[in-house]
Every structure is written in C-alpha cells, then in structure tokens.
Amino acid sequence: MLKKNDAQGHSVHPATASLHAGFRSDPTTKAVCVPIYQNTAYELDGDLSKIADIYNVKEDGYTYTRIINPTTRALETRFAAVDNAADCLAVASGQAATFIALANLCSGQPGDNIVAAPFLYGNTWNLLHNTFRRFGIETRTAANSEPAEFEKHVDDRTICLFGECVSNPILDPLPVRSLAEIGRKRGIPVVVDNTTTPLVCRPSNLGAAMATYSATKYICGHGTTLGGLISDYGSFPFQQYPDRFPLFSAPDEAHGGILWHQAVQEVNDLGKSAALLKARMTWLRDTGPCASPFNSFQLLQGLETLHLRMRQHCENAEIVADMLNNHPKVVRVTHPSHFTGRKRELADDLFDKRYGYGAMLMFEVKDAASGRALIENVEMIYHVSNVGDARTLITHPVSTTHTTVPREKRMAAGINDGTIRLCVGLEHADDIIRDLERALSAVN
Ligand SMILES: *Cc1c(COP(=O)(O)O)cnc(C)c1O
Questions:
Q1: What superkingdom does the record give (predicted)?
Q2: Which of 117, 274, 346, 421 could bridge across to 264 with cysteines, CB 3.0–4.6 Å?
Q3: Whose CA is nearest to atom 5 of ligand 1?
C-alpha cells in the first residue's frame, strides 16, 4: 500500500496518489481495481458492544451506505491524497458538497453569516442567497474580490469566507492566500470551490481550510457522472473558536451529545478530520445526499487520469485563447493566461504553471445575434452548458443560463450580449480552432 511519505520524507505526487492511494487490492479476491460495493447495509455480526461502538463513533466500521460505503470511502481516501487533504467526504453532487461543507459550519443560532465573493456559479448563488437565507444563514457579498472588501463584512459570527478559485463563468480570480491571512487573524476558515481547476490550483498550499469540488466536471472528466467532494486540509483549528463554532467544541445533540474533537481521536480511518466526521455523521446522515457506489467507481476511473487531462485541457485552452485573441471578429478574450496587472498577479499565485491556467475561457463577439450565429454554426463543438467534459463545449449565456437575469445585472457581472463561454476539451487543438474559425466566418 502506498504511504503518504517515503522513508526520505518525499511526499507522493498526485499522479501516483491517483492510482495508488487508499486502496491496494480487494481483501477477499485481490482484485486490483476498487470493486463496486453496490450495497446498502452491512451485516452487524460479532460482538454487540463493538457494533454499538461503530454507531457511537468509537470505532471505524460500515453501517449503512447513506453514511459510508467501501467504494466511496476508497474514492475519499484517494482524493484526499491527491488533493493534499487530511480527509475527504464524497457526496452526490457539487451542490451537495457546497451545501454540506457550509451547513456543517453553522452554529444553528441566529447570526451565522457567510462572506462570499461577488461572482459565483449560479446555483451556488441561489443556495447562498435564497436557500440558506431561509434557514437563517445570511450571505454578505464582497463588492469585489479584494481582501479588504471581504474583511469589511466580517463579524464574530462569520462562519467562513467563501468563493471560487476562479469563478464560473466570469473567470474572476480569488485572492485565496490573502483571504486565508485574514482568516487566520480573525479566526475564520476560508472555503473555496475549486471545481474548475483541480490540481491546477492547490488550495492546500494557499492556506484554504476546506475546498469543495463538483466531481461531475474534471474529476469525472467524461460527462457521465454526478458527484461532489469536500476536502478538509486540516489547517483550521475550529476548536479554538468556541463562540463561532460551538458545535466543534461543545456536546453535539445531533449525535447523542458527542464531542467531535474527542471522537475524531478514537477512530482511525475516519479520524483525520473532525469537521468531516461531523459532516458525515450528522449532515450526510440527516439530509442523505450520499454518493452512489457506482458513481464513486466512475469517479475513481476519472481520477486516475486527472493530472494528464488537466495538462492537456490547459494546453489546448491557451492555444485556443491565443487564436481567438488574434481573430478580427472577436472583441475580447478572457482567459487567465491573458490576464494583466492585478489579475495577472493573482492568477500567477493561484495556478501551478506546470498545468496552466484552466480550460474555461470567455470571449466576446459583436452582439447577441452574432453570439447566436456562432453557436448555430459550430459543427464538432457541443452546445452544452456543462464544464469539464472531455469534449469542447460552448454556450451563449444570454440565450441559456442567463436568459432570466436582468440585462444590467448580467452586464455588471461581465456577461454581455455577445459573450460566449467555451470549455476547451481534449480534441486536437487544430480541430477545435478549425471549428471555431468556420463558425466565426458565419458571424457578423
Ligand atoms: C457545476 C458546478 C457546481 C455544481 O456541481 P454539480 O455537480 O452540478 O451539482 C458547483 N460549482 C461550480 C463552480 C460548478 O461549475
């Protein structure tokens, strides 16, 4: 079995961890690939007091797939090694990951608030501003992504600073390192959604406390499977802030008056993150968005080649961004590889250039009619509002995801009438370019 560090203390590279971490072979058959334990419950045999210990989080063990499953646990352990995390929790979708990661931090008393970045994935915006608000959790939005704007909204009941490492679809880079400094000073964890840049951006190195991922996107990589992952980097001392995070230090009624910081020391496999142990044993148990074992298996397959695919996605995106930048019918290209000034600084701090700058880009044609004509004239590229498929995907937000958003509001967010979002896939870059050039020739 792969160890986290070798005898010389070298940590294992993500490429290796994605193939080896957390699972060697099936204990009964010696099968090398993680088996699909398409299974709901586990026989409670043997010593009954031992069974009670599993239920009471005094011992590791399998009880029910809503809470834990061997296939899903292998995905969690493997992804934790890939993402430099203490532990990881897999759930049914990216939205479930964001929901559970943030709900898990609330105290359950009035006053809890989240300070969020100005640009968020649409459904995350809805989760924060509508659904959480209905539960009494307030979201305060920073006017822009400068750290000082976040700090203005912080109070002694702020449960986290939240944003996307680079926002979907606006591509606004988040100053994760500076936010983490504010967080350390004020005792507030930084939680980032790193869906669009796994491995390209390493939240663990930037001081983030936790990250959420829609594994549906690049981790799956093939547009076949929904899933979500929450990483806990183990760097945030929740227990040191009992006023802000009472459920991390006082007895939690949601699990028989358990003390999570003590419980986490009694278990072994699940003993690497008090936050995720709490999330699993209360939020996942009670709300139920567990990963299906089959989906976890699919995500394990995707994870094996994530590092190769991300490199190729990023390389293709830069080639396509350069071509679009030189095209007479393209008004503007937004891709982190083309950032200048402050955004350049942020991007250079956020991204591991050995991978690149991510594979999502935006560009702009003259007007809405040109945008529609472009979409209608691509042949190979798919008109699909998804991210992180192996295939190149294109959307015209004004005709799809942003049709109901008032014009001034979307313009303020950088979505103009002729804005196009492109998620560059793994085809040969020449073929992506040829398709775009042909479609652009049909545009005014
Ligand atoms: C897609 C996406 C999500 C939601 O993920 P699902 O798996 O579709 O629930 C959240 N955040 C970002 C940035 C996304 O792109």
A1: Bacteria
A2: 274
A3: 94
Q: What are phi and psi of 281, to 5 degrees?
A: -80, -10
Same structural domain, 269 and 343: no
Structural domain includes residue 7: no
Q: What is the predicted pLDDT for the residue at 49?
A: 86
What's the confidence (pLDDT) of residue 50?
86
Q: Let me know: does 415 contact 380? Beta carbons within 8 Å.
A: no
Indicate whether this model's pTM tops 0.85: yes
Residues of the chain with pLDDT under 70: 1-10
CA-nearest residue, atom 7 of ligand 1: 94
Q: Is there a domain that residue 64 lies in? A: yes
CB 198 less than 6 A from any atom of ligand 1: no
199 pocket-lining for ligand 1 (C-beta < 6 Å)? no
> Is 294 inside any structural domain?
yes
- Supply the pLDDT for residue 414: 85
What one-letter code names the amino acid at 232? D
Separation of 142 CA from ligand 1 center, angstroms?
21
Nearest to 101 by CA among 284, 251, 374: 284
Atom of ligand 1 nearest to the CA of 167: 13
Ligand 1 within 6 A of CB of 401: no
| Block residue for tokens 């009954």 | 48
Atom of ligand 1 nearest to the CA of 96: 9
Q: What separation in Å is there between the alpha carbon of 90 and the centre of ligand 1?
A: 14
- Closest to 195 measured CA to CA, from 88, 97, 49: 97
CATH number at residue 225: 3.40.640.10
